[in-house]
């Protein structure tokens, strides 16, 4: 969405459930990142508080992955399978409604959910996270710094992502720096990631699950985010060093190399080709999935499962309007996909992977 002022201000950081909320509103302050540790490993991690009035629950989570997998051809079958390792470390905490505390200060907004989740949203484009599960020995302390300007869902007015998925807020690609601790081992890291301030007036997992791609990408000098909902709208923004911020343009997503992901109980595109065109030129990049985190998976239909695909390093070029092509470096990114499944899982048994499904509770809102 094009807004009058793309600058992020503290009022949007502190925004609670909107006055025009409908059946299934919710809030989040999410961050998803790909980083390089000082131990030589690449880490994919994500965390968020999730405020769900309809369910009368408030949840925070943290997932950290570092192992990678690959897609293989299933012997004697036309299908391929994504052999991805499980998430390396994960925790989720469910708290009663009313636990969330949002404190507005002169230069920052403090968001707390229980004793072990906090994000401080400052007026200098940074979010400061402190997240810990002492019992599991997992923690993350890091800063996300927004770069350029974000992709807005809605500011002065809400956006209809689908007929019943209505939201204010933004998502914003940027740099990430901090520490991760797993099993008492602390790693310093630097990388890139996206943060999201989502303020849902209403939501429909079924409409979004008609197929959604929600992705971010960040090369040195060219970065942004986009989303496309087959039963709703598509939107994007692109920042190009030396050319500016483009809150609108055209893009195409090509799904390639589909593979069965046992933990999801569904097929995923393991390879993406994305083309983004703005006034300054055209970005083309390729991404390959090497891992995944799944949630919202159930063993009974209807279901609206989600997979966040861990992308390996991105390969990309930017071609300006004069035809000059630049090979881009430092490419990180990721994508979340949502599906709508009104039918039982038949492929799992057929592909001899029935035990791979990872069922979790299904929420009405998400």
Summed up, what is this model?
With 366 residues, this protein is mainly β. 4% of the residues lie in helices and 59% in strands.
3D structure, described in words:
The protein contains 3 helices and 25 strands. The chain has 366 residues and is mostly beta strands. It has one domain (21-356): AttH-like fold (Beta Barrel), CATH 2.40.370.
What brief labels describe this structure?
single chain, 366 residues, AttH-like fold, twelve-stranded antiparallel β-sheet, eleven-stranded antiparallel β-sheet, 25 strands, 59% strand, globular
Under the CATH scheme, which class? Mainly Beta
Quaternary structure annotation: single chain
The profile of the biggest β sheet is:
12 strands, antiparallel
**What is the fourth-level CATH superfamily?**
AttH-like domain
- Low-confidence runs (pLDDT<50, min 5 residues)? none
Number of strands: 25
What fraction, in percent, of the residue positions are helical?
A: under 10%
- Quickly give the structural class: mainly beta
| Alpha carbon gyration radius | 20 Å
Instruction: Say what the CATH topology is.
Output: AttH-like fold
The averaged pLDDT comes out at 94
Number of distinct helices:
3
Number of domains: 1
Shape: globular
- Looking at the overall shape, the CATH architecture is Beta Barrel
Residue fraction in strands: over 45%
Distance between the termini: 23 Å
The topology string of helices and strands comes to HEEEEEEEEEEEEEEHEEEEEEEEEEEH
């Amino acid at each position: 969405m094009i807004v009058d002022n793309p600058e992020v201000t503290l009022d949007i950081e502190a925004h609670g459930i909107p006055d025009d909320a409908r059946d299934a509103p919710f809030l989040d302050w999410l961050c998803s990142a790909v980083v390089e540790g000082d131990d030589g490993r690449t880490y994919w991690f994500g965390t968020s508080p999730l405020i769900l009035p309809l369910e009368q629950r408030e949840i925070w989570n943290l997932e950290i992955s570092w192992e990678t997998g690959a897609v293989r051809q299933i012997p004697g079958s036309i299908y391929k399978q994504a052999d991805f390792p499980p998430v390396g470390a994960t925790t989720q905490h469910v708290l009663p409604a009313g636990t969330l505390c949002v404190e507005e200060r002169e230069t920052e907004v403090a968001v707390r959910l229980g004793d072990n989740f906090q994000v401080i949203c400052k007026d200098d484009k940074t979010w400061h996270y402190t997240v810990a599960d002492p019992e599991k020995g997992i923690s993350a302390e890091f800063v996300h710094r927004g770069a350029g300007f974000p992709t807005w869902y809605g500011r002065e007015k809400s956006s209809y992502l689908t007929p019943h998925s209505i939201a204010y807020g933004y998502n914003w690609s940027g740099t990430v720096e901090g520490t991760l601790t797993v099993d008492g081992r602390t790693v310093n890291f630097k990388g890139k990631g996206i943060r999201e301030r989502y303020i849902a007036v209403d939501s429909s997992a079924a409409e979004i699950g008609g197929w959604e791609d929600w992705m971010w990408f960040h090369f040195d000098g060219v970065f942004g985010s986009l989303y496309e909902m087959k039963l709703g709208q598509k939107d994007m923004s692109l920042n190009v060093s030396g050319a500016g911020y483009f809150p609108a343009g055209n893009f195409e997503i090509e799904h390639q190399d589909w593979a069965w992901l046992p933990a999801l109980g569904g097929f995923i595109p393991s390879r993406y080709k994305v083309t983004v065109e703005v006034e300054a030129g055209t970005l083309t990049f390729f991404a390959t999935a090497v891992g995944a985190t799944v949630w919202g998976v159930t063993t009974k239909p209807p279901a609206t499962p989600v997979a966040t695909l861990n992308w390996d390093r991105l390969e990309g070029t930017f071609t300006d309007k004069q035809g000059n092509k630049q090979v881009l470096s430092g490419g990180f990114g990721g994508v979340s996909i949502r599906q709508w499944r009104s039918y039982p899982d038949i492929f799992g048994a057929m592909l001899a992977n029935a035990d791979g499904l990872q069922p979790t509770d299904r929420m009405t809102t998400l």
